[in-house]
Design goal:
With 123 residues, the protein is an all-beta fold. It contains no helices and eleven strands.
């Protein structure tokens, strides 16, 4: 069974930056065959797709984070990253990664979820 572990969350002031990481295990998991997505969920709100990093160079960003967030991956480390800059209070949420498939502009999530990492943007 795939395990995804997110890290890097924390408390940051508006305008600040954080880099989230999501690492997959076990080592026999074919990380490089999966498109990886970042979601977030704030209290009382629906889960929102934030970004997708395909197995290649294709990326997707929600309009709310476009130009501020950047996703990347290191297949050798089985890790996907989410660099978040110019953070806003409305970015406050629990962030999750998912291993799935991205095809023709649609991300197909799977049951491969991490436990999430909390991001709080507040002065």
């Amino acid at each position: 069974q795939v395990q995804l572990v997110e890290s890097g969350g924390g408390l940051v002031q508006p305008g600040g930056s954080l880099r989230l990481s999501c690492t997959a295990s076990p080592t026999k998991f074919s990380f490089d065959e999966y498109d990886m997505a970042w979601y977030r969920q704030a209290p009382g709100k629906n889960r929102e797709l934030v970004a997708v990093q395909s197995t290649g160079d294709t990326t997707y960003y929600a309009d709310s984070v476009k130009g501020r967030f950047t996703t990347s991956r290191d297949n050798a480390k089985k890790t996907v990253y989410l660099q978040m800059n110019t953070l806003k209070p409305e970015d406050t949420a629990r962030y999750y990664c998912n291993a799935g498939a991205y095809h023709r502009g649609t991300y197909y999530e799977t049951d491969n979820w991490g436990q999430g990492t909390q991001v709080t943007v507040s002065a």
